[in-house]
Write a structure and sequence with these properties.
The chain is 2% helix and 73% strand. It is built from one helix and 14 strands, in the order E-E-E-E-E-E-E-E-E-E-E-E-E-H-E. Strands 1, 2, 3, 4, 5, 6, 7, 8, 9, 10, 11, 12, 13 and 14 form a 14-stranded antiparallel beta sheet that branches. The radius of gyration is 24 Å and the shape is elongated. The model has no long low-confidence stretch (mean pLDDT 87).
Amino acid sequence: FVRDGTIFTFPIGISAPLTDWLHVGGSLDFVLGTVDESWQSRSDSLVSLGTRRRDELTARTFTLGFLVKPVNWLTAGASWSPKFVGNGSTRWTLEDVRITTNTVPIRDTSVQGDVQFPSALRAGLTFKPHRKWMLTTDALWRNWDIYDGRLFEAEAVQNEWRIGAGVEWQRDGRVDLRAGFSQQRWAQIVGGNDLKETTLHLGTGFDISDEKSRIDLGLEYAWTGSIDRNLYEERTFRIIVSISGQEKWKRRRPDVED
């Protein structure tokens, strides 16, 4: 049995300042995902069947958020995305794996349907006690109990939450060093218990074009599940690369005064 898949969100957003200390923004989010599964069944020496299943998801939703900075050393923000309905499709193919050349599958079936996805609430806080130091904390909550799609081996789903905290040190005017910790309860219930993940984070970031573009690099090590509680356990290394850029739409001629 082999399973492979991914899901990602492509946001297109805009933000604007309402006052010197309050910014608001929003984005239109395109959600795309696939899961591919394959397995073989053997009943005797004359029959060897291979089954392939592919699940696809497409959806659109939106996110609204704000950022408030009442004083120079404190910044807070939050965002909200509503629950949404995605379009899911599943295709099964049944093949004779003894035939190595390209042939028409013995059976080819496709179904489509709607899948209910949860809303999401995120919040974060940064505290800067010194010009080179910054402390951060963030939280996430999703109500997965409304989800009505495939469970992918999970026994049930529940509300998901995540909390995290970190520290950042600015070595000079352009390079940052970071370390953090997070705890997450996944939406899946496995082995009759919550599935939890603990993660350690290390990272750095630096500007590459007069503070208009930036590269961030991160390394994570995560402990997921427990053999005793979930009959499942996983240790994962993750490498994260992020590139961001911006361009000013409004420019002022140097010879023009207000």
